[in-house]
Structure to design on (641 residues):
């Protein structure tokens, strides 16, 4: 199952040379010289996300203690603001800074990747029937009408995003109208047989399918088809029917304490009395939403993920925000996910990059990456630029040193700097920071995960199996689903099962049964991901899809058109986990970590321990507000800004 020549030419070759960014490969290869003039990262396939060439220099500092001589590097450029990280938070911060300080201010955004957007990456594929769009990371706006701050809503409205228009572009009943449902894949290695069981009647947290259109069977009919012993099936049916108080004898307060302090695995084992084989059915239910399995997920969070077993416990109702996250439809989605939002931000900051003015025309706008870093532009965005060092210097300035295209060290100077990258890297990039703040920043250990996009020739196998989305309890990819049915801006999602389709697949390298904390699992999972070449990912993908869809006529050798593995070794921001964290202590850590340090300010969703687009926006706003407050204070004191 080696990669095909076609896949190789379409991008794998640009990602497999250790320590080299794709742009370097383009420049280094005479065969690809013309592509250097048409630099367009969204079209690259193969190993993307935290691609090779984007992290090695940072790891050399953080892991190996590599030292650079930053003192003797000359300052090449000066800016009013430098933003480190061109993801949602960094781009939003640049937008807010322009709003507050004026469009004449000189802003430079630096990013270590070959594309902007952070986790909000765009994947593009060319198929025999035209372009297929996908999202390489950040998916959708979750519950914007319910939980977004005025700041976050103000930003997306200023960019021309119509939330209702997004919702109307999402055809919620498309798959239900075809008679499709959700299903479960039991793989041979773990359950003795490859089998897809359709008709799951359960809801998802933040579901995109209306609750009355799930096309689910009764729990008895659905679970009776599982390849499990009869006793396990009966126990699972009883659990899903929500008729038993498994914490009977406890007061409500005691129940609340129990669900916060015990994992869902413990609950299923000790209170529900499920067998290990029945518990395995739930093991990866929380992987996609929590980035850990049920053994590291509290019952409190399992309840928020719509897992069964809590309906008869007489627990207090969820608060309004929690209920909104559970109930609000997950339909506010660009065809390229939240890359649509970052493209709107970049186009607003650097208008020459693409024509248009609203959320519809940005969908198919061809971005001219050569316009991102022009000397005559007030805002410049420089890719393939890994920041290695930031230091407060004389005259209230900050010097920032970065490695450009993994070749040349460069230094720039700024009045203010916003660090909008990973919190856990900041202590290494700003070594003069107080130790207490460094330690606080290191507590946000991001969770590794993989969003893989597989374009298949047609999706008839899914129709034959009666499913549009499949959960896997034990196979590597816990979630495999047909793309969201979104049509907007002239882009149309696949309407016919005979047309090419982009599959969304989620793999989280957890350590089931290890008893390790989420932070420890994340560190180990990151090591696993970084050691996996594309060929290992491809083998895993092909084997799972063949086992899942083979009986419905799928042939991985002929039916797969393209594969993009969006590897996020640093994925979701860490969130408070009641099994391992004290909430009050965590809040103190959060506040300590994001304090301004001289003229260096901190944004990104990590600064709020919240892996959501709206949190990234809010933290960009907070950082800019801190800058404005600093300037105002300086002026009031009679000093120079």
């Amino acid at each position: 199952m080696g990669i095909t020549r076609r896949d190789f030419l379409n991008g794998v070759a640009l990602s497999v040379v250790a320590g080299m960014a794709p742009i370097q490969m383009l420049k280094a290869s005479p065969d690809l010289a013309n592509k250097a003039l048409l630099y367009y990262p969204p079209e690259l396939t193969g190993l993307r996300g935290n691609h090779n060439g984007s992290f090695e220099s940072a790891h050399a500092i953080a892991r190996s203690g590599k030292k650079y001589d930053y003192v003797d590097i000359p300052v090449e450029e000066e800016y009013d603001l430098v933003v480190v990280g061109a993801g949602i938070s960094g781009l939003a911060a640049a937008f807010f800074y322009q709003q507050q300080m004026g469009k004449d201010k000189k802003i430079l955004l630096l990013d270590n990747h070959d594309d902007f957007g952070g986790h909000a990456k765009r994947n593009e594929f060319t198929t025999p029937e035209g372009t297929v769009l996908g999202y390489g990371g950040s998916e959708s706006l979750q519950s914007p009408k319910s939980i977004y701050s005025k700041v976050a809503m103000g930003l997306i409205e200023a960019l021309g995003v119509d939330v209702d228009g997004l919702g109307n572009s999402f055809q919620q009943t498309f798959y239900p109208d075809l008679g499709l449902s959700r299903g479960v894949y039991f793989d041979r290695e773990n359950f003795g047989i490859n089998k897809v069981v359709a008709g799951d009647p359960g809801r998802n947290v933040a579901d995109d399918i209306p609750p009355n259109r799930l096309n689910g069977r009764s729990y008895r009919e659905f679970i009776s088809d599982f390849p499990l012993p009869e006793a396990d099936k009966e126990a699972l049916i009883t659990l899903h029917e929500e008729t038993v108080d498994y914490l009977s004898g406890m007061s409500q307060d005691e129940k609340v304490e129990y669900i916060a302090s015990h994992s869902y695995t413990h609950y299923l084992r000790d209170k529900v009395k499920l067998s290990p084989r029945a518990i395995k059915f739930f093991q990866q239910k929380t992987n996609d939403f929590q980035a850990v399995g049920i053994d590291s997920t509290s019952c409190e969070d399992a309840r928020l993920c719509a897992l069964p077993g809590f309906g008869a416990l007489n627990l207090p109702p969820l608060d309004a925000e929690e209920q909104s996250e559970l109930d609000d439809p997950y339909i506010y989605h660009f065809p390229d996910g939240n890359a649509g939002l970052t493209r709107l931000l970049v186009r607003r900051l650097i208008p020459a990059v693409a024509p248009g003015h609203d959320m519809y025309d940005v969908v198919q706008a061809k971005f001219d990456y050569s316009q991102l870093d022009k000397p005559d532009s007030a805002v410049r965005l420089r890719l393939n630029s890994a920041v290695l060092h930031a230091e407060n210097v004389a005259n209230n300035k900050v010097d920032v040193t970065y490695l450009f295209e993994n070749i040349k060290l460069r230094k720039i100077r700024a009045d203010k700097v916003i660090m909008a990258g990973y919190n856990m890297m900041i202590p290494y990039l700003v070594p003069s920071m107080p130790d207490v703040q460094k330690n606080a920043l290191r507590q946000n250990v991001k969770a590794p995960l993989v969003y893989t996009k597989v374009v298949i020739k047609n999706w008839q196998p899914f129709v034959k199996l009666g499913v549009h989305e499949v959960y896997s309890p034990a196979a590597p990819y816990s979630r495999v689903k047909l793309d969201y049915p979104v049509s907007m801006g002239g882009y149309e999602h696949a309407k016919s099962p005979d047309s090419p389709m982009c599959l969304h697949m989620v793999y989280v390298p957890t350590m089931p049964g290890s008893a390790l904390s989420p932070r420890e699992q994340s560190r180990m999972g990151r090591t696993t991901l970084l050691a996996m070449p594309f060929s290992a990912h491809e083998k895993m993908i092909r084997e799972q899809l063949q086992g899942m869809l083979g009986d419905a006529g799928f042939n991985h050798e002929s039916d797969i058109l393209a594969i993009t593995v969006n590897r996020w070794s640093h994925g979701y921001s860490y969130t408070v986990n009641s099994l391992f964290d004290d909430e009050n202590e965590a809040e103190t850590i959060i506040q300590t970590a994001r304090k301004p340090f001289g003229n260096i300010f901190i944004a990104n969703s990590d600064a709020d321990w919240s892996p959501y687009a709206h949190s990234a926006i809010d933290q960009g706003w907070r950082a800019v507000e801190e800058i404005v407050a600093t300037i105002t204070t300086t002026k009031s004191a009679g000093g120079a800004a």
